[in-house]
């Protein structure tokens, strides 16, 4: 696993940590959203009923984190390539086509200029495809695998589920308001951190009134008027997509990697191993709680002394010197690289990361 590849996976749950007070879900009704006056708990509970939904749609994702512009150059270093990948996820706008036929058939197509990336699941078979690199990965899932196989994909459902999974008493939840997303009536709830120590201002979730499908998720930085991150449907049609969309055959000249997880003893265990990577050291240690959660990777994760001139120059332009290392603070997330090679990240100011590293 690339050393920087963990960043989006760590940042996403940190950004939405805190979410909703526990009693709200514990007391939530299991019935569909009814009437014109639902509670926030009703809206949250309705998300569960969308797991078997059938639909096709177009997603739009935008980010405005105030990151420094990635400098251009001749490239070639692995750090520069990794940094480009991560910054591309966090700064660029993307659109994707999404096709879903229940819990075990999904296709996501991310189209960029002259290139396409796909994630296709059909039952226990999952394909990923990168047309630019001409590479494909075929994964055979265990029979008891989790329903959502996407690795790193971010949709409104992903963000909503992470928010719900991170329940703590650290968040104020608004009364639902009516909004329209992609031509569908939705209930929107706003999650506001009670703590002033986080960079997160609010998280807004819009949920389809009829189906419970999350249609849009918006993360706003504290003190900012415009969204720092927003992902949502710009078009959405309910109904089963064509079956052929879930069949994938790589081109004859593609480089194919096979990963067979079908013999895993427990799907949840296999999923945990995959998330941790090949070594336990790839899994960050989490400290703090709620919106102030900080993720830390151990000493030696980043060896700044071994960087070449290009990579060192890139690091110097993306970060600034702070006590004990270098750091970058965006409007929503901070990352701190210590002199001993540790990496800390969280939706908190750099000063909090430096204090946590001592």
Structure commentary:
- It is a single chain.
- With 358 residues, this protein is an alpha+beta fold.
- Helices cover 21% and strands 34% of the residues.
- It has 8 helices and 19 strands.
- The strands form 2 sheets. Strands 1, 2, 3, 4, 5, 6, 7, 8, 9, 10, 11, 12 and 13 form a 13-stranded mixed sheet that branches. The chain has a 6-stranded antiparallel sheet with strand order 14-15-19-18-17-16, sandwiched between helices.
- The longest helix is centred in the first third of the chain and has 14 residues, at 78-91.
- Residues 1-30, 71-84, 147-153 and 266-281 have low confidence and may be disordered.
Main features:
358 residues; alpha+beta; six-stranded antiparallel β-sheet; 8 helices; globular
In percent, how helical is the residue content? 10-25%
**β content, as a range?**
25-35%
Average of the residue pLDDT scores: 77
* Structural category: alpha+beta
H/E element order: HHHEHEEEEEHEEEEEEEHEEHEEEEH
Q: Quick one: biggest sheet?
A: 13 strands, mixed
> What count of helical segments does DSSP give?
8
**What gyration radius follows from the Cα positions, in whole Å?**
21 Å
Write the layout of secondary structure elements.
Layout: H1 6-16, H2 22-26, H3 40-46, E1 54-63, H4 78-91, E2 94-101, E3 105-112, E4 115-122, E5 125-130, E6 135-140, H5 156-165, E7 171-173, E8 177-181, E9 184-193, E10 200-208, E11 214-221, E12 229-238, E13 255-260, H6 267-276, E14 285-287, E15 294-297, H7 309-318, E16 320-322, E17 325-329, E18 334-338, E19 343-346, H8 350-357
Parallel strand pairs: 6-13
Antiparallel strand pairs: 1-2, 1-12, 2-3, 3-4, 4-5, 5-6, 7-9, 8-9, 9-10, 10-11, 11-12, 14-15, 15-19, 16-17, 17-18, 18-19
């Amino acid at each position: 696993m690339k050393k920087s590849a963990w960043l989006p996976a760590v940042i996403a749950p940190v950004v939405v940590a805190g979410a909703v007070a526990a009693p709200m879900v514990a007391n939530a009704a299991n019935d569909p959203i009814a009437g014109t006056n639902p509670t926030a708990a009703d809206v949250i509970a309705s998300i569960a009923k969308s797991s078997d939904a059938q639909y096709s749609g177009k997603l739009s994702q935008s980010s405005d984190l105030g990151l420094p512009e990635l400098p251009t150059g001749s490239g070639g270093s692995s750090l520069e390539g990794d940094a480009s990948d991560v910054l591309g996820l966090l700064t660029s706008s993307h659109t994707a086509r999404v096709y879903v036929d229940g819990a075990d058939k999904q296709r996501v197509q991310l189209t960029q200029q002259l290139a396409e990336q796909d994630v296709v699941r059909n039952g226990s078979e999952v394909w990923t495809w990168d047309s630019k690199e001409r590479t494909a990965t075929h994964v055979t899932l265990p029979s008891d695998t989790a329903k959502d196989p996407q690795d790193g994909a971010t949709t409104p459902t992903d963000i909503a589920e992470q928010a719900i999974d991170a329940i703590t008493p650290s968040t104020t939840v608004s009364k639902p308001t009516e909004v329209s997303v992609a031509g569908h009536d939705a209930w929107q709830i706003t999650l506001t951190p009670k703590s002033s120590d986080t960079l997160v201002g609010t998280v807004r979730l819009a949920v389809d009134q009829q189906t419970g499908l999350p249609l849009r998720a918006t993360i706003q930085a504290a003190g900012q008027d415009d969204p720092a991150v927003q992902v949502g449907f710009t078009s959405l049609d309910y109904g089963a997509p064509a079956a052929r969309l879930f069949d994938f055959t790589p081109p004859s000249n593609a480089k194919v990697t096979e990963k067979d997880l079908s013999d895993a003893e427990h799907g949840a265990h296999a999923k945990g191993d995959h998330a941790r990577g090949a070594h336990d050291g790839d899994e960050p240690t989490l400290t703090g709680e709620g919106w102030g959660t900080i993720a830390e990777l151990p000493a030696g994760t980043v060896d700044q002394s071994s960087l070449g001139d290009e990579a060192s120059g890139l690091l110097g332009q993306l970060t600034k010197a702070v006590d004990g290392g270098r750091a970058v603070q965006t409007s929503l997330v901070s990352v701190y690289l210590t002199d001993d090679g540790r990496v800390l990240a969280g939706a908190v100011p750099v000063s909090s990361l430096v204090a946590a590293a001592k």
